[in-house]
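Notebook, bench 3.
Goal today: get a predicted structure for YfiR family protein from Shewanella inventionis so we can plan the truncation constructs. The sequence was checked against the plasmid map this morning, with no discrepancies at the termini. Length recorded as 168 residues. Pasting the sequence as submitted so the record is complete.
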Amino acid sequence: MVLMLPFLLMLSQNAHAIDTEYALKAGFLYNFARYSEWTNSPTTLSRFSLCSPDSNFIDVASTVLKNRAVNNTPITTLTVSLTETDLNQCQVLFITSGTLTLWNNASLNELKNVMIVGETEDFIAQGGQIRFFLSGGKVRFEVSPEKLLSANITMSSKVLRLGRVMEQ
């Protein structure tokens, strides 16, 4: 039992680190949404949906974003499957490293009006528009403004200046 204690503590710290990182990323996603404009979406949304196929991320995000709104529209967090039917209800989609295989295996047409964010190497080349990465122990992001525009989304230049802009 004594030998198991350090292992259990390490697992607990690992889970806490993942939750902390997911909380930071949920905050980034919220700000991306606040400082972006969906140019071809329905004018009146009853809710602003942040989606992911990763239920662990959604659990953390729902806590972090509780009672938040984007342009006076309440945020909801949804665990989704990667089908066009499910994704049509999303404004922001987050693909975690644990769900990348699902993303790569999904046969989706180009998604319009959905901001697609991931956290794995080459995610933008794999169809995403924004990618999180760690640098110096901090969460950073890179973004493809052209891919956002092709999805009918415009991000504020103030946010673009904070990230690494990727040209196609």
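The mean pLDDT is 86. Strands lie at 36-38, 48-52, 69-70, 73-79, 92-95, 115-118, 130-135, 138-143, 153-155, 164-165.
Flagging this for group meeting.
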